Amino acid sequence: QIEFDDYKQHLVHVTIRFLANPNQELWLPTWIPGSYLIREFSKHIEAVKAYDEAGRMLNIKKTEKNRWRLFNTDHELITVEYDVYAYDLSVRGAYVDQTRLYINPAC
Predict the structure, then answer these.
(1) Distant-in-sequence, close-in-space partners of 37: CB < 8 Å, separation ≥ 6
(2) Contact between residue 80 and residue 49 where contact means Cβ atoms under 8 Å apart
(3) 77 half-sphere exposure, CB direction, 13 A CA radius
(4) Most buried of 38, 41, 72, 104 (most Cβ within 10 A)?
(5) Amino acid 100: pLDDT
(6) pLDDT of amino acid 2
(7) Cβ-based neighbour number of residue 57 at 10 Å
């Protein structure tokens, strides 16, 4: 789910729901095909939070520049929320303002 109510701050709010496994790790790529530079998409990720199916906050920690590990993943359904700072008006990023929204899903 993608929301962009905070477009004046150039923020896109992302919510992801999935079935967890005991060693759940989440990550973003550092590059995409056709763009042969390291892009560091994760530098635009802010306020990462995780919840179980009852809405209780779970422990999630950033372990590397582009990776997060979920702890206590003995829950069936996990919800992860985060904000993306979207102020890159190019084909390799994300941008939002009062007139448009552009998202490259890899970032």
Answers:
(1) 31
(2) yes
(3) 7
(4) 41
(5) 92
(6) 94
(7) 9
The token duo for 27 is 């990550």
Helix-strand-coil percent breakdown of the chain, rounded to 5?
5, 45, 45
Residue 32 gets which letter from DSSP?
A: B
The amino acid at residue 54 is: A
Structure tokens at 51: 């919840």
CA distance 52 to 45: 21
Cα distances (Å, whole numbers) of residue 25 to 20, 59, 99? 9, 12, 35
* pLDDT tens, per residue, the chain with 107 residues: 999 999 999 999 999 999 988 778 999 888 877 777 888 888 899 999 999 989 999 999 999 999 999 886 677 899 999 999 999 888 778 999 999 999 888 77
